[in-house]
Amino acid sequence: MDTSIDAGRLLRFESFVLDVRSRELRKGKSLIRLQEQPFEILRMMLERPGDVVTREELAKRLWPDGTFVDFEHSLNAAVKRLRSALGDDADNPRFVETLPRRGYRFIAVMAANGLATMPAVSPDFKARLAVLPFTNSSGETGQEYFSDGLTEEVIMRLGPLRRGHIGVIARWSSMAFKASTNRARDIGETLLVDYLLEGSVRREGDRVRITAWLVDASSETHLWTDVYERHLTDCLAVQADVAARIAESLASELIPEQPVVRSAG
């Protein structure tokens, strides 16, 4: 990502240039109208590419003490105007990524040198995840104990794994959505999480099939899924084994080891 700042205070990304001094946004030779608040939001993100700019930080910059506004509505409207100016899509962003209830982040773009780059994960990055109660698909209420036990085991396994990087919501909070028909985005906003882990358990005789999938709460898209089939010779052992495998897979999905750098072509 090319976000170099030259002596003229020019912030560059893709074919855009934000002139901090003249407070203008240009794309090639075209001048793009950008109002005061969208300008400040873009400036803050470009000065910290890949980092989360929190809603609280934006509020202090846009509305100093003594200014009375409907903060939530005004900020959402300003970000919407910014996306419109950039030709960005909230559901499939190229520039401005939304982290529900937390803030916004300027994400990877194609730089002028032909390299596709992703910003390094900030040391204080923490993906917030809710493990929703696994659904009992066996049709037998007596099997609820296995589904609930698996949910608890996954939460426990995720706790110490990559501590400081993955924040897992407490069980009592996520259990409130057992058998819920709420949309993923609504659950994410309620629990203040970025991702949801969902799953189902189906048992037939002494065999069990466990399906798990990871959902991006804001876009409501599946990021990962896997299926585990086991013999139920020992329920606790099966729960522990499957939960450990799910936890390892989620860590790989949510916390990349290093920035991705690929040569174009």
If you had to describe this structure to a student in words, what would you say it looks like?
- It is built from 7 helices and 15 strands.
- The chain has 265 residues and is an alpha+beta fold.
- β2 and β3 form a beta hairpin.
- α1 crosses α3 and α4 packs across α7.
- It is elongated.
Write a short abstract of this structure.
By secondary structure, the chain is α+β, with helices and mostly antiparallel strands.
Give the helix/strand layout:
Elements: E1 10-13, E2 16-19, E3 24-27, E4 30-32, H1 36-47, E5 52-54, H2 55-62, H3 71-86, E6 96-99, E7 103-106, E8 115-117, E9 127-131, E10 135-136, H4 144-158, E11 166-168, H5 171-174, H6 184-191, E12 195-204, E13 207-216, E14 221-231, H7 235-254, E15 261-263
Parallel strand pairs: 9-11, 9-12, 10-12
Antiparallel strand pairs: 1-2, 2-3, 3-4, 5-7, 6-7, 8-15, 12-13, 13-14
